[in-house]
Queue: 4 jobs
Job 1
Amino acid sequence: MADIVAPAYRTIPIIPALKPGAMEGKGPFVANEKINEAIGFPGQLVEDWHDKAIAKMGELLSKYRSLKVFMDACVHCGACSDKCHYFIGTQDPKNMPVARQDLMRSVYRRYFTLPGKLFPKLVGARDLTREVLDEWYNYFNQCSECRRCSVFCPYGIDTAEVTMAAREILDSVGYGQKYSNEIIGKVHKIGNNLGLPGPALIDTLEGLEEDVKDATGIDVKFPIDVKGAEVLLITPSADFFAEPHIDSLIGYAKVFHATGTSWTLSSMSSEAGNFGMFIGNYDQLRAIAMRIRQAALELGVKRIVVGECGHAWRVAYSFWNTLTGVGDGADTNDRFAQMLQKQLDHRYKQPAHICEFTWDMIQDERLTFDKSKNDKHIITFHDSCNVARGSRMGDLPGGQFEIPRNIIKAVANNFVEMAPNTTREQTFCCGGGGGLLTDDLIDLRVKGALPRMEVLQQAVDEHGVNFMATICAICKAQFTKVMPIYGFDRKMVGGVHQLVSNAIQLGPK
Ligand code: SF4
Ligand code: SF4
């Protein structure tokens, strides 16, 4: 960490000067045999990796029509090239979204198009050599799958999907990434990304009950494995112990307490995060999501609410229905999905985001706040990529932008926006999403945070902002790590429900 320095802010935020090769060989640690085999992937690069990788690519191209369209549709207009935070921060031209896609597109052309088979050089087609495979590993693990580039592409080409496909191919030949694969193994074995066993979780929750009682004099409960509770809360495991995440968990508990909602956590399914999406692997994505269904069925809950986690909400909102039967579109041939459909209370959104839950309660006047408790903060809001560009909230378009802001305005007096071309659907990634929140990528993470840090600095200079709220565990973890390198206090970042927790009025009205 000592030698990691923040890049200088740009005076005019335009396409930066190119530094070819700047991030070559700077990808994350490769997963070892034990990690890969624990989740069913080949332990190390298989001997016939070339043929297997091409076969896997063919399989994905026939399975995901979008991937084929993305391979064919790009006209190299360049509209996406300066939209990636990793390109802006590293200046490596291969971190331009179009160049990242071309790493795969060149191989696609060689093996799956006639001109590429006949005249490879004329159409920019390349053989899949070991050098190319290494290049894939390096640069497809420098994309946080944030989808910002796709917002600017006239054809809607989604580099995140190309990245997911590349990682899926790499895993299939035993060339996976350590951080994501290790975490997936922990979820299968223990139930959460952190490997926090049930007894430790129970201890932590008991400690929290005592802390909240000391601070407020009120018995706010943090229930776990309670059969027959109305709500099952699925939240990122960072909420159980890390700062500032835990302050949001306290906020959720206070909201449930104040509204008289019976709720529970699950020790078996104590993780909202789903790194199966990051590695583009459907089987992993489903297996992780199934733990949630199992917990919901065993506990007999009526509602499933998801805590502050960006990619978890994307998985829950966009994929849980067909993966597990939570939400509309459950597989009619899946007996357990149908059981869950019958069990859940469909007067409510299934699943619901904790912000939707809290905002509904605010609108129903079931919560009261003392906004002055947040007066020490001048607050801004960082939209998290997967919430902004991969999901929705509420009943209106843009609900995922408005609802968290509405909550902040309901619990605090001082709220300002950051520059409009860096918020809502145009938000910049924190720099640590998509399975890149690992210390072996700290250089990339610091550089990737540059665009958000520049705009935050502007908000600090113009409005005196001293608190940036967000609803993503990865954003919180990434910002607390990189913000001090940019000269900010790490305590400047926190959750929306941390602000709710500060202002909520508990006890008799
Ligand atoms: S990190 Fe985001 S902006 Fe950059 S290439 Fe990947 S999806 Fe596009
Ligand atoms: S904006 Fe779309 S079409 Fe243009 S270069 Fe980027 S991916 Fe290709």
Job 2
Amino acid sequence: MLNKFTGLVIVGLTLLSGCSDNNVKPTTTKPVTETTSQTNQIQVGKDYHSQSNPEQVKVTHIDLDLTVDFDHKVMSGYAELTFDKKDPKATSLIVDTRDLTINSVTANGQKIDFDLHDADDFLGAALEIPLPDSGNKVKINYATSPQASGVQWLTPAQTAGKKYPFLFTQAQAIHARSFIPLQDSPQVRVTYKATIRTPKELLAVMSASNDPNTERDGVYEFNMPQPIPSYLIALGVGDLHFKAMGERTGVYAEPSILDAAAAEFEDTESMLIATEKLYGPYRWDRYDLLILPPSFPFGGMENPRLSFITPTVIAGDKSLVSLIAHELAHSWSGNTVTNATWRDLWLNEGFTTYLTYRIMENVYGKDRYKQEAVLGYQSLEADVTNLTDKDQILAIDLRGRDPDDVFSDIPYEKGALFLREVEQKIGRDNMDAFLMEYFQHFKFQSITTDEFLAYFKKHVVANYPDKLDMDRINQWIFEPGVPQGAPMPESNAFSIVDNARNNWLNGEVNANQIDTQNWTVHQWLYFLNNMPDELSLEQLHDLDRAFNLTESHNNEIAHSWLLIAVKNWYQPAFPRLHDYLVHIGRNKLVKPLYKALSKTVEGKAIAKKAFDEAKAGYHPLTVKANQGFVE
Ligand SMILES: [Zn+2]
């Protein structure tokens, strides 16, 4: 998924003294802590975030039949699980649930006594089902709760069209269990079929086969023939309409934003073709986008065949479409080759971030890629400054922790930087050949960091004994920080911006004398993100007068500016700030603002007012992530 994105974090002090983009200091590796011994205690491949028992009895297919009840905010029906008994001695199937009402469990038409265990705080409640005497299917009749952590129910007022309600699910990391009883682990891959029943005027879409010409009759059938991990099962229901963008690509959205979305993302087909050329065939048939209401808590979610996308990147100038490249890239890294546990998330996100940069370079050219890479690097630097040592490790120890609480740029940008270093050492052609083979070799499998390393050692490191060594690779993966000498992205386009900012800060020019006519959105973000922490009221007025930043229509530029406004108590921007917080639920756009506001009593009052007004429309994950700032 794309939780993070470039350019939103005010970076560390190294950049504030006006140094240009090409002399950002490398981050030194911090001393190795007890991580190595900790790592040894981890049972590699064990999923600490599921209570299910796939090693004994593994679910292989799910048949769903669910009715969506908007009045009661409940989905009800059944999930029939087909299983494979791996261990002849196994006596029960255990699946994960959270806040589900289990009405009955049957097999071969007969009721089975089941045991719903006590709920764990963040893992939910294990559902234990004795294996039936014959057959390999059990049917669970159940209903979700209105508070299901993986489902957001929106009233008509919270949608773009204001006429119909909307529902979407978000299963990653461990929320599928809140709307389907299943083995909620990325190492359990299932195929699925579903029948979704909705009010007649609405359309349901899923991470499965979607027929753009389906009859709108309130009963929709889906089939996902490729085995996918549970976190990729996804459903959207709303006043959705379809517009084709290319032969294999199209967009689903509410009518009022359909044309704008299709225009913004019209390069999706070119991205798909470019990615296939680099990394081998797209294995999922169609690639469509579902544009969600602004409360979607993430940038995007790579649900197979149908990425879920925040509308906050519809900027009118394609400036934020690297998000689409990211979600598309997951079709290879993440959906085709999947992390086996959440400790291995970097295999999904690091590879995908590396691929994203390559796709952007291929479709939009080197200049744009370089600008985005520098912003990504700065964001990583900020995380390395702020995170504890153990949270800077790619193969992170998440035992006893909710994966939602540990999201950072580390798996994304540090993972990508590691692969960039490998590319620089062995050459781009060799890197591409390796990646193509890797996706082919592990297709439709879920693998651990250790499995990746064994493969990498045999198929890459062994071929380049003079260029790669396992000590350094292990340092990248098992130690905090970024190794000395790591590649550092640079962009000449940012030198101009550094000069302009310096001249303005030194008082040599007024803001309206800066020649910004040809600046890209990324140059603007770089300009704002690297401002000193403190600016005078006069300076803020000067910037706002010259560039109308408070009214910026670009959500990322607005974010960067509002963060500066909060830090410097620039009150003319506060009505926009309130509006921004109330209308956008994408966590990475609102969280830094709430965090900055929470530092003063007056700021907290502003935050609380916005939060109280916005809360009903926020996703449960956004509420959870920000509640602490307003209490
Ligand atoms: Zn991602």
Job 3
Amino acid sequence: MDRPEIILAPGPTPIPTEVLQAQGSPLVYHRGPGFGALMRDVTSWLTELYRTSSADVLLLTSSGTGGLESAIQNCFSPGDEVFVPLAGFFADRWRQLAEAYGLVVRTVEYEWGALVRPDDVAAALAEHPVKAVLLTQSETSTGVIQPIEELARVANDAGALVIVDVVSSLGAVPFAFDDWGIDVAVGGSQKALSASPGIALVAISERAWNAAASATNPRFYFDWAIYRRFAALPDPENPWTPAISVMQGLHAALELYFQDGIEAALRRHATLSRGVKEGAKALGLDLFGEGLEQNWTVTAIRAPEGLDADAIANRIRADHGVVLAPGQGPLKGKVFRIGHFGYFSELDILRGLAALEMTLGALGYPVKRGAAVAAAEGVFADAQGA
Ligand SMILES: Cc1ncc(COP(=O)(O)O)c(C=O)c1O
């Protein structure tokens, strides 16, 4: 019998029934009070999630990358200089995007898996000022949560705009747009919020609006000023036909998220992350990347000696229908990744760890059966104070 796959990859994440039902219900016409009410609620929840009282939050019809591209289009002119600390696949996407629009990209390069050092960024900006620093909070390719608060501080001190990719972190780890001095933050509907892909969530500060007013990069579909004009209508709208069904689903997803609230969601992510990490360690596996205590979104695990990480990911999917993510770039074949942000329960994680134990055993790795599950159960019991 064909069963739905169990997604334990870093997005898209499993979609709760309430969200599926909302996005499968009749379309709300996108001009008028019904859609306006959806947009108002979604924007207001996101404003709370971004922890901002000053930024505008725009809802672009796009996956996360379109939101990132919109930041490059709206804030810059060809020849502007930006700084991008490179420590993984998605930081490099910033570099590629910026170069595609004729920006001059200055970098400091780290090994994948490293934490970006604020001192390095401060030194680079002191030596050569730039218009903006482009950061990635959750470097999904390595599992590392970068120290955005500290990095934003050194960028602010140097007078640079702070533009952050929070696609795989918004809702899963702490973030504070206003307090940290962020200018643009780009999230996505399909990650920790567990809606379908299709809407980019872009928060924009006054400083970023000022930059946009004089920036000359070409833009049309993602022109923030047009989005803002339509969002300010008495019944808020998108300028173009939006992904209405995704918006209906995103509304349900945020409603669910805020039933427990931000703090509870962050605690849940911390606990599930610890469960995965302790489970993997109980199997004798090595975890990859710096700052493991803070890395609540994705766990990158080194394949044991003699096993290929892609073979593990392929086998667990073929045998158990569990989707893990392979290593990217230089980590291909060396690590596999478990995503644990989004609408996951403890049982979802235990199921994934049980499948991992069985898969490693089938591939000839000496597993102590039940060890990962037992270790994760211990974490969950501790978290409940049991
Ligand atoms: C950190 C990060 N940035 C950007 C993206 C790209 O988002 P999308 O695939 O929604 O365009 C992803 C997707 O995995 C991501 O994890």
Job 4
Amino acid sequence: MKLALIALALVAATALAIVFTQTGERRVSLVIVNGTVVTMDGAGRVIANGGVAVDGSDIVAVDTAEAIERQFAGAERLDAAGQVVMPGLINTHTHAPMVLFRGLADDLALMEWLTKYIFPAEAKTVSPEFVRAGTRLAALEMIQSGTTTYTDMYYFEEEIAKETKAAGLRGVLGQTVIQFPVADAKTPADALGRAETFINAFKGDPLITPAVAPHAMYTLDGPTLMAARGLAMRHGVPTLIHLAETRDEVKTAQDQYKASPIGYLDRLGFLGAGVVAAHGVWVSEPEIAVLRQRGVGVSHNPESNMKLASGTAPVPGYLAAGVAVGLGTDGAASNNDLDMFEAMRTASLLHKLQSNDPRVVGARTALEMATIGGARVLGMADRIGSLEPGKRADVIVVSMASARQTPLYDPISHLVYVTRGDDVRTTIVNGRVLMRDRRVLTLNEGSVLAEAREWAVKVRAAVQ
Ligand SMILES: [Zn+2]
């Protein structure tokens, strides 16, 4: 009897040992399990009790939690019970350092806002130190609110790139080219030279995609626009431009070139694959077809467009025509934050109101624009924008536990209509955990905020 019991115990122990060695046989850097995995893949899969295995910079498996635990042993294991695991959000248009102008002046007409506040403040404060401090603050806010890739157009972009890398974020960063003298370039030729140096310094970087950012058709002459475009094409990098943002821009194009902004740029031969057009508000039906034919992606910035009363972009028309559409916050001076959850919600509500149809820009469409749609706009859909094996591990874990999120019937509805950036618990980029359970690991939160407050003193003095 005793012997039999011992024998039984031995058998049980052996069986357990076998189960143990079979569990998580493949060693990987990170597994996330027990969450609701919203993949945003082509099939739109949502896995109720799911998991993601990450090795180094890449996603190696997306499956049920049970299958992930059976196959993989993570050096780090995140339990995401009660939370959503999803691709990190992609901001397709911002000016990161402008967070230092947040709330400086609001509720003004665009030209008064620009000429009385933003341009004077920029003229007196923008420097390598300013953009570094601003980028650190923006990066902190983005990590805290679940943005893993952002697209930038500003000055001293190489400094922005260094801070972006240090914070661990992915960036498509465009060196600005503009006709008039600015902080980092006296002439457009200087700016083009800076852009090329910047491209050469960061080309092939795992986190930074350098880009050229000709500011807009109304702030550059034709030859400079085409020189910027040519530079981007020679290096195979994106071209970032503000396009058809306001009625004023349309009027300028008509007065100067007897064409619409899109008509003018197309006549120049500017439009093509790799162009990311921010705003695209004043765009007619035939021009939507032109953008589609040329392979131009559009960054939709609903909050900035509403705050500056620029107009409503024809997003349902873009989507129907098959134009790639992503979401952007624009600079924090005209938003006033970098929260992509707000951008999703605002986009959805704005187009329902505008089209008088609640079926327009539903929750899944808004979520697509903030993830895989944004990846398409940036030409990065093979690497980011969804949770799929072989893609980079840009992943966020979002709490669904607040009163605001209770009860939970449909995670996609909640992500768009009730979730806020603050609900993001964990942010991972390229397989590296940047924030774990609300603690940012790559930036010193206290010193980033203190430094920003110090800059605010100089900014305030600059506009008095
Ligand atoms: Zn902008």
